[in-house]
Amino acid sequence: MEHILIIEDDIHIRESIQEILELSGYRTSTAANGKLGYDSIMENCPDLVICDVDMPKLDGFELLLAINQRLKDSVIPPFIFLTAKVEPNNLRHGMSLGADDYIFKPFDHLDLLKSIRLRLDKRSKLMRNGMLKDLKLNSASFEKLALPCDEGLILVSFDEIIKCQADRAYCTFHLTNGKTILVSKSMKEFEPLLLEHNFLKVHKSTIVNINYAKKYIRGKGGQLVMSDTSIVYVAVRKKDELMKVLRHRGQIGIHAVSLN
Fold it and tell me: What are the tens digits of pLDDT across the range 59-118?
């Protein structure tokens, strides 16, 4: 029995869709907001997701962005968005994130069932033929980074991050507002995305946003003084790469201070 996850903050719509699907022979689960939906997708691997666009805490677009990041090496379930918005920009944005279809509110239950069946059959056919490719977004188009932490899923703009520092299986993100976010995942989980957004790995345990490097202190490897006045050590093998980046960005003047 195919499993469909319904993510909708309106309890009446959520329960109505659940009843329609269960009467049509599907197994269902529900989530009342995007954060709960994210957790359910991670834990239960549904065959298809029906997701409202406008939700508190985490909207449908932000959720799909986070799923693309988290499941970058896995097959992502088809996403059908529910929305009352019909603006072309909203439609294009959802499709760019990998949405499979839109159902507009108020919707006809037959249209919903038809769309579901179409997406499930297409996915099943591709899987049988070995043609199913990973559904993932070009990482360069991500505007925010999804960080799972104790408080839930947090989306942080890349330009809000000063640096990321690793400590074994954990890593800490230091933000421009002075806050830190502790994530119970290794830095390798986020490294590919960070490196495509003006970040540079200067040490095995540290990735910095090069925009916030204010001064380079010469030494064997050297040190970077960041915008929050913190000191970041540069590994010897990373020094040449750092100097190349600084010269390219016209920041070479920041390395005028010496340790001696």
Answer: 898 898 888 887 765 668 899 999 887 677 777 777 777 788 899 888 899 999 999 999
The 10s digit of each residue's pLDDT in 144-198 is 888 877 767 788 899 999 999 999 889 999 999 999 999 988 898 899 889 988 8
What's the per-residue H, E or C state across the chain?
A: CCEEEEECCCHHHHHHHHHHHHHCCCEEEEECCHHHHHHHHHHHCCCEEEEECCCCCCCHHHHHHHHHHHCCCCCCCCEEEEECCCCHHHHHHHHHCCCCEEEECCCCHHHHHHHHHHHHHHHHHHHHCCCCCCCCCCHHHCCEEEEEECCEEEEEEHHHEEEEEEECCEEEEEECCCCEEEECCCHHHCHHHHHCCCEEEEECCEEEEHHHEEEEEECCCCEEEECCCCEEECCHHHHHHHHHHHHHCCCHHHHCEECC
Given CATH 3.40.50.2300, say whether it is the number of domain 3-128: yes
- For the chain, the domains span 3-128, 157-258
**What's the CATH code, domain 157-258?**
2.40.50.1020
pTM over 0.70: no
